[in-house]
Amino acid sequence: MKHYDAIIIGAGQAGVPLAKKLAEAGKKTVLIEKRLVGGTCINDGCTPTKAMIASAKAIYQAKKASALGVEIGSVKVDFNKIKQRKNDIVNQFRSSSEKGINETKGLRLIFGTAKFSAEKELTISLNNGGEEKVTADWIFINTGAKTALPDIEGLDEIDYLTSTTILDIETVPEHLMVIGGNYIGLEFGQMFNRFGSKVTILEKSSSILSREDEDISSALTEILTDEKIEIITDVKIDKISQDKKQLHVLLQSGKTAKNITASHVLVAVGRIPQTADLGLENCGVKMDDKGHIIVNEKLETNVKGIYALGDVKGGPAFTHIAYNDYTIVYRNLIEGMKYSIQDRPVPYCMFTDPQLGRIGISEKEAKEKNLNYKVAMIPMSQVARGIETNETLGLMKAVVDPDTKKILGAAILASEGGEIMSVLQMAMEGDITYDRIRYCVFAHPTYTESLNNLFMKLDK
Ligand SMILES: Cc1cc2nc3c(=O)[nH]c(=O)nc-3n(C[C@H](O)[C@H](O)[C@H](O)COP(=O)(O)OP(=O)(O)OC[C@H]3O[C@@H](n4cnc5c(N)ncnc54)[C@H](O)[C@@H]3O)c2cc1C
Ligand SMILES: NC(=O)c1ccc[n+]([C@@H]2O[C@H](COP(=O)([O-])OP(=O)(O)OC[C@H]3O[C@@H](n4cnc5c(N)ncnc54)[C@H](O)[C@@H]3O)[C@@H](O)[C@H]2O)c1
């Protein structure tokens, strides 16, 4: 049995950089991956979806080009080429990551499924056959999450799609029914609508984006509905069945019963941690009732020397959070720092068009916390850059503290909303108050310049 300084389970967004850096720091390290280097983000998540969303945006832009005086004629979608481009980008990212691992001295990559067989011992079922046992002083669990399946009668008897399988479907669905109206449902829903599918989104809450402020959720609902996407809320699905031609969904929306047929169903109701087959009972690492690994603010589990990073530990499930987990663990263990995950900013961006860039607290949260707050808001139809580029959908909104003048949070539903939000995040991190931003000199005419006008609204 081989002994290492460090074992990392999962070549995801935390695992790969951590493994490389530990090996570079002189630690004998092994990285175990059961499927593909790069994990969800590169292979089934951010990279492929954002590549395909770029194609969907090009279709949309081409169709509205006549508003800018450009006549394109009919727009033809080559779905195979869209997928090929997506596959090329994914392969490029994955192979460059794998090359980086293989070129790192002191780092071994094993393809296989790891399971704890004792506290600091793992048994690996190797992908090319056989088994290997390894032990280490430090073990880092970065096994990510997978699609959650709702408890709906008949779901296990139909050919449903997940965010992974939909990436490789042969043709554009005629009618795509999406269960779940949040990040995955909305990004895929709008994308396939633009590729030519009829799209129906079924959301169990009273609105899509149910965790966001109502004005943000209703603005996006209007935008998507204008694109002819059907959104049904307050949904309880009673049964799904399939015959040779169609899928049939029996549901209640509020008090109304509906029977909807569709050609395809995409399940997008959240993700669950990949912990069930990890053998955690053999090492004593504790999980919560949803199967997430419980960690302290330094990402250590209840067992000394075993850490969990990324989606598997619960909390915000984003690539940048998994990556930040790696930097915290690495700097604490190798550089002797005392970084914590508490109070770190959690920005995110949903890549619908317009994007939703979010940071800090929402108005809803400010109200719930009984804070003294004010809201600044400007519709994109009043933003010069938006008008000039024909990107007038959405709004910018910031929640501020009128006493300290600090920005508490922002929701930017706009073209490039993620970039504009990041400008406000920098201001929040650097304690730049809104009364300064109001008079900051920004280049004209940029979206950022409109932050002057956004905060001017607070005087009115
Ligand atoms: C469709 C989709 C779109 C997304 N878009 C975005 C986005 O735009 N922006 C964003 O920030 N986030 C996005 N996310 C979320 C993001 O992908 C995840 O938060 C991120 O990948 C989590 O990284 P991780 O390192 O925790 O896990 P992962 O990247 O999931 O990596 C875990 C790895 O562990 C491996 N593994 C699991 N169990 C074992 C085992 N027993 N033995 C060996 N290996 C194992 C898995 O095969 C996998 O490779 C998206 C997710 C999806 C599904
Ligand atoms: N741009 C991004 O950053 C991005 C993009 C995609 C995914 N992600 C990550 O992936 C994770 C999973 O995304 P997601 O959208 O699948 O999950 P989610 O938990 O964010 O949203 C699931 C939605 O499904 C609804 N729902 C649950 N059960 C339902 C049912 N039976 N019928 C109808 N609706 C139901 C919920 O009310 C919710 O609105 C997110 O946590 C996110 O962190 C991020």
Automatic annotation (TrEMBL):
InterPro entries: FAD/NAD-bd_sf (IPR036188), FAD/NAD-binding_dom (IPR023753), FAD/NAD-linked_Rdtase_dimer_sf (IPR016156), Pyr_nuc-diS_OxRdtase (IPR001100), Pyr_nucl-diS_OxRdtase_dimer (IPR004099). NAD(+) binds at G180, G181, N182, Y183, I184, G185, L186, E187, E203, G270. FAD binds at K50, D311. Residues 4-324 form the FAD/NAD(P)-binding domain. Keywords: FAD, Flavoprotein, NAD, Nucleotide-binding, Oxidoreductase, Pyruvate. Its cofactor is FAD. The active site is at H444 (proton acceptor). Residues 346-453 form the Pyridine nucleotide-disulphide oxidoreductase dimerisation domain. Disulfide bonds join C41-C46. The keyword 4Fe-4S does not apply. Binds 1 FAD per subunit. The keyword Translocase does not apply. PANTHER family: MERCURIC REDUCTASE (PTHR43014:SF2). Belongs to the class-I pyridine nucleotide-disulfide oxidoreductase family. This is Pyruvate/2-oxoglutarate dehydrogenase complex, dihydrolipoamide dehydrogenase (E3) component. The lineage of its organism: Bacteria, Pseudomonadati, Bacteroidota, Sphingobacteriia, Sphingobacteriales.
